[in-house]
Amino acid sequence: MTQSFPPATIGYGFSHAHLLGIDPLKPGEIAYLLDRAAYFAELEPGEAPDALAGSTVINLFFENSTRTRSSFEIAAQRLGADVVNMDVATSSVKKGETLIDTADTLNAMRPDFLVVRHGQAGAVKLLSRKLDAHVLNGGDGKHEHPTQALADALTIRRHKGKIDGLTVAICGDIRHSRVARSNLLLLQKMGARVRLIGPPTLLPNSYEALGVEVYHRMDEGLRDVDIVMMLRLQVERMAGTLIPSGREFFRFYGLDRDRLALAKPDALVMHPGPMNRGVEIASDIADDLDQSVIREQVEMGVAVRMACFEALATRRAPTTLRAA
Questions:
Q1: Strands of 113-118's sheet, edge to edge?
Q2: What beta strand segments (E) does 107-166 contain?
Q3: pTM of the full structure
Q4: Cα–Cα distance between 126 and 37 in angstroms, integer?
Q5: C-alpha to C-alpha distance for 66 and 135, rounded to whole angstroms
Q6: Distance from the CA of 131 to the CA of which of 28, 99, 169, 228 falls in 20 to 30 A?
Q7: Exposed/middle/buried for 236, CB within 10 Å: 0-12, 13-18, 19+?
Q8: How far is it, in rounded angstroms, from Cα 115 to Cα 112?
Q9: Phi/psi of residue 169, each to 5°?
Q10: Hey, CA dihedral for 253, 181, 208, 201, is it positive or negative?
């Protein structure tokens, strides 16, 4: 008789050389990372094992992100690694060096891990093919931001006890959000139902093929959801005027008390940050400790990135059953 297992127990472990996105991961691999992150989240800063002792981590951020870069840096240091933050603004990249030449230069330095954020989708994958180091995607273009999605999933699981069976509404600027893509991939792999809510100009038609429910009105899409995940309006990535103004955007798509009341009474409010208060979300909701878990998302980001570093360093082979 063939024994069947829940999806999250199949392939439990992590044997990838790089973390480039959620798309290549199996449910069991995601579950493994979340379990390890949950372990790290309960530790005091000085209690973490020196899993990266003697290792060198290079943060290479072609786009500014104090939040993500600092989170990776803290995670690596807590595991005992030496961290180098490369200043792209004054590097050879700004002098015309190609990404391939940069990869060759970095390879000569022999780092163990490279964390990359780049404005072009696929740039991180290219670097992973050229470097001997483990490469972690800190966000590439409009493609993916895997560690943010893992941090969001861990936050949800800590409060709801599960991901499977929940209904999650991702709201706002879906078109330009790598966070939205990574989240919808992860949530669906783990059994959640995903709704996307936003104006037609900010909702790519291609996402409907991924099995999500698409809404253009907040009052329809937010009804009875378990999680309300707001997204930053990424004006810097918009070609042309896709919205009339921030004030008008909030009028139709901002999260206020009336709209939040449409969700379940115990619904969680999330935002990957940085927030535009009064544009995507009202301040009183963002600061509401009863429902907002925005601060916890940042805290879980460190634990998740510790888990990702450890997983790449140890390369635990997948097994059929979840470890007890």
A1: 82-86, 56-61, 113-118, 134-140
A2: 113-118, 134-140
A3: 0.92
A4: 27
A5: 19
A6: 28
A7: exposed
A8: 10
A9: -105, 120
A10: positive
The identity of residue 155, as a single letter, is T
Q: What is the pLDDT along the chain (324 residues), one digit of tens a residue?
A: 344 455 566 679 999 999 999 999 999 999 999 999 999 999 998 899 999 999 999 999 998 888 999 999 999 999 999 999 987 766 666 666 788 888 898 999 999 999 999 999 999 999 999 999 999 999 999 999 999 999 999 999 999 999 999 999 999 999 989 999 999 999 999 999 999 999 998 998 778 778 899 999 999 999 999 999 999 987 554 444 556 677 888 999 999 999 999 999 999 999 998 899 999 999 999 999 999 999 999 999 999 999 999 999 997 656 654 443
Predicted confidence (pLDDT) per residue in 123-169, tens digit? 999 999 999 999 999 999 999 999 999 999 999 999 999 999 999 99
How is residue 20 annotated by DSSP? -
Report whether 53 contacts 109 (CB < 8 A). Answer: no
Separation between Cα atoms, residue 174 and residue 164, nearest integer Å: 22
At 98, list the tokens. 């190609």
Distance of CA 15 to the CA centre of its chain: 20
C-alpha radius of gyration, the chain, whole number: 20
> Is residue 261 packed enough to be buried (19+ CB in 10 Å), middle (13-18) or exposed (0-12)?
exposed
Pairing of strands 268-270, 213-215: unpaired
- Whole-angstrom Cα distance, residue 9 to residue 12? 5
d(CA 105, CA 146): 26
Residue 150: in which H helix or E strand, if any? helix 146-160
Is the backbone peptide bond immediately before 49 cis, with ω within 30 degrees of 0?
A: no
Please name the amino acid found at residue 154: L
Q: Hey, is 144 helix, strand or coil?
A: strand
